[in-house]
Amino acid sequence: MFIHKKTAKGFEYIVIENKSANAKVALQGGHLFHYQKHGSPPLLWLSGKSRFETGKAIRGGIPICWPWFGKHSTDATLPQHGFARTSLFELLEVTEPDENTTELLLQLQNSTETLALWPYQFKVLLHIIIGKTLTVALTSKNCGSKSFSITSALHSYFSVSHIDNVYIHGFDKKEYWDSLTDTNKIQQGDIRINEEVDRVYQNVTNGLTLQDRDRAINIAAKGSTSAVVWNPWIDKSKRMADMKNDAYKTMVCIETANALADARNLAQDEKHTLQCIFS
Questions:
Q1: Most buried in the list 77, 203, 258, 263, measured by CB within 10 Å?
Q2: Per-residue pLDDT tens over the stretch 76-135
Q3: Can you spell out the DSSP letters for 157-210?
Q4: Is 255 a catalytic residue?
Q5: Choosing from 34, 96, 155, 162, which is the catalytic residue?
């Protein structure tokens, strides 16, 4: 079952319900902001201060950072994390292969507005599979004659019991860029969060596991060799208008990415798919 809804302010989203799970996807940004298997707590964290308004990014869920991740490399006036997360996607189809699975296909194409920010012709297809597991796949295609380079991320916010209970497995001995100190470092052992963290890990080709007190979340990526780990901690949470002061205690971001050296170059008609499966 799916229902197309609209808030009083005109913000459109899709509600999905099947035998396995329920989910909510905003057309703005193709933004999955809720996924929950029946009998389990929500997978994704959503800020209680999120603004469901046109042109405003939702804080939580899985924002799509595209066609650049973080600040633009040459123009600081352009939007952080690109324009996809505040652009309106077109819902192409909703299918139900069986009673346990619902699939959504959404599309974003270049427009006058995007060309003013980024002078390339493109098509982005977003494939979301809601079932016993969650799959998100972002396919980028170069539809013009000029080659371009993209950095991107599925900026996944995970809901956790308390940040003190969290271990993140799979990054041992991986090199990472620490964005807070502008230095390269090597991870030793599992990741524990006890301060602000903003890191881009490189050469990540293995699966990852977020271990919480009562559950483990497995993260399997394709089309990616980089991953981002982020938690704003105390001071930054207080400075962020769309987060409560103590929100850092119940969330952590582990982002499937094409960042830094993992940028992807696309010539005319070439495609690249960034995918993640959560189980």
A1: 258
A2: 889 899 999 999 999 999 999 999 999 999 999 999 999 999 999 999 999 999 999 999
A3: EEE-S-GGG-EEES-TT-EEEETTTTEEEE--SSB--SS-EEEEEES--S-EEE
A4: yes
A5: 155
